[in-house]
């Protein structure tokens, strides 16, 4: 038997200490590897893919989603342009003027109404009321200009409509 204080004994003790330290380090690494593999199974699932295959599959799915979103955005842009085109044709400006066409003290029974779209085109309707009769006149307007000569009240209706003051009553 060798003495532990001899050179061979000291080397044996040092080798045993290094072996125990290496064994502890291997056990610690095995635990960490088990945790990493468990985390990898959470991310990758049980399909047996490696991380590179999983990343490539995620990239393909992301590209497909990106293409779908681009197509949906293009479709929505087309629909929005069509809706904006249609909205340009709806009534955007309107005004109503009431007045006494004949100055008879019978009240302001006559009216002129301007109905214009976003291009300032549309019509002016005037309803002239007298004691025993009523007349209705319609005049077309394009780009803010009437095709026929307008009465002062009709001009005022167009002016107020384009100003956005269509709800304000006309002066008496």
Strand content: 15-25%
Percent helix range? 40-55%
> What does the main sheet amount to?
5 strands, antiparallel
Structural class category:
alpha+beta
Question: Strands of the biggest beta sheet: in what spatial order?
Answer: 1-2-3-4-5
Rg over C-alpha atoms, rounded to the nearest angstrom: 44 Å
Query: What is the residue-mean pLDDT, rounded to a whole number?
Result: 85
Number of domains: 3
Quickly count the helices.
3
- What is the H/E order? HHEEEEEH
Number of strands: 5
Distance between the termini: 132 Å
Q: List low-pLDDT spans.
A: 168-172
Shape: rod-shaped
Protein model, in words:
This protein is of the alpha+beta class and 172 residues long. Helix content is 51%, strand content 19%. It contains three helices and five strands, in the order ααβββββα. It has a five-stranded antiparallel β-sheet, covered by helices on one side. It is rod-shaped, with a radius of gyration of 44 Å. Mean pLDDT is 85; it is low at 168-172.
